Amino acid sequence: MTSFLPHRRSGVTAPAGFRAAGIHAGIKASGKKDLALVANDGPLDVAAGVFTTNKVKAAPVLWSQQVLTQHRVRAVVLNSGCANACTGPEGFQDTHATAEKVAEVLGCGAGEIAVCSTGLIGERIPMDALLPGVDTVATALASTDEAGIDAATAVMTTDSVPKYAELSHQGFTVGGFAKGAGMCAPNMATMLSVITTDAVIDAELADAALRAAVGTTFNRLTVDSSTSTNDTVLLLASGASGVTPTADEFTAALTGVCLDLVRQLQVDAEGVTKLVSITVSGATDDTDAERVARAVADDPLVKTAFFGSDPNWGRIAMAVGKADAAVDPDRLDITLNGVKVCAGGVRGEDRSLADLSGKEITVLVGLGLGGGTATLLSTDLSHAYVEENSAYSS
Q1: What is the pLDDT of residues 301-325, one digit of tens each?
Q2: If you count DSSP H runs as helices and E runs as strands, how many of each does the chain have, helices first?
Q3: Is 190 an active-site residue?
């Protein structure tokens, strides 16, 4: 499949047919932007979505899952500062009321409005701030670069920077934003992400392309092995370019944007000091390869060793062995930043030759059992991560 290189200029407003805005509505006491709106002006309103696999699902996830069964979305409203998760029937009513308000302002039906929330779990959204905020954010809708960045900014929680990207190819464009810095081990998506395109596609392609892209990008990032209650990735297609790409072309472009967003999430992870790439090869199949890579990426002893720039391959071997996958210890190879520190399950080159003092760490695990491969992106476990997640509720 063709690879594409995204740009970072505006995100969701790069494709034709979309307007966006981000404002401070009063949900966050800090005064920072906390309400975003992305509107699809058509002519198409095709949509697809992928949601958290966590059994504890936030009210906006339950609402948006229902909306997406019709594969039609005219707008997405997103708030930060409150997850609206574990809030019972009242929380779902708040989500419904939010969708109705957006529909009223935009002149469409509530069933065409997706809702996303992120922030503290267990608290209800201050509707006296959110509902008037919908009027304000709708008035601010624009197709400018600044509007796209404002929307990306309004969904931030512990993120330090907004994350957005876009890519144009053969007359159509894909753009998007994402938020996420912690509670990030998606298993389907990650935190909140809205992706737009002006390509002419149908619901079947939108769904298939999104799932394929998410599977090799968002699903391959793990910061702390915690899957959020609110994870949502939405794809909206306006068809405004008039261009109908092939399935392969569109999937490749979508995947390129998703991968760029995921790399931005990795760089901005809470307390990150190391950017870790873990590639497993020689597994019996790709599923086993991913299981092994995830076992290594999520292990706290491995992550703390990376924080200390310690080429402790024994911890990696331990993590490989505990994975729910076929592993032959006598065939295990481990390479750290180009140095094969474990060969055939025993000591290889001197571990001191593996220099992990830089920011990037590349881990190659060879299982010697078959043709399965997988790559995961991860981070280290630092003092700053612990301090950030223990000092306050997020």
Answers
A1: 999 999 999 999 999 999 999 999 9
A2: 10, 16
A3: yes
